[in-house]
Amino acid sequence: MSFVQLLDAIRALLPPEDYRLLCRITLEGATHLEVAKELGIDVIHFGIVFCILNSLGCCTPPVAVNLFGMANISGLSVGEITKGEMPFFIANLCVVLLIIFVPAVTAWVVG
Predict the structure, then answer these.
(1) Average pLDDT for residues 12-39, to the nearest whole number?
(2) Neighbouring C-beta atoms of residue 46, cutoff 10 Å
(3) What is the rounded CA–CA span in Å between residue 34 and residue 31?
């Protein structure tokens, strides 16, 4: 099975927004990983930060796949959902900053 066939099989199982995230991680992650290695960044640390930032990117405009999906399903405006989402976004952002500035956190979690 080739890599493209594998991605196509995964795409059939995932909702479209999850598949877009998988494609971003696959295509951009490989490129950014090489740069991170050259800069001496730990691969595990980079992967954790990359995945968390991608998930945060799905909750903020202009991509905001999750935000627009919630607005469509709930019938609320994007502004109303953003107001409710903001405390969680700030908490996640604090976690990302902690992970970026204290890399020992990821080493402790991984073991």
Answers:
(1) 73
(2) 19
(3) 6
> Which of 14, 10, 109 has the alpha carbon at shortest distance from 52?
109
Give the three-class secondary structure for 61.
coil
DSSP category for residue 14? S
For the stretch 43-67, pLDDT in tens is 888 888 888 887 787 777 776 777 8
Give the model's confidence band at 18: pLDDT under 50 very low, under 70 low, under 90 confident, else very high.
low
* Burial tier of 35 (Cβ tally within 10 Å: 0-12, 13-18, 19+): exposed
Place of tokens 């903001």: 86
Helices of type H across the chain? 3-13, 16-38, 43-57, 65-74, 78-101, 104-110
Half-sphere exposure in the Cβ direction for 29 (13 Å, CA): 18
Using alpha carbons, list the distances in angstroms from residue 15 to 5, 39, 50, 59, 111: 17, 35, 21, 16, 32
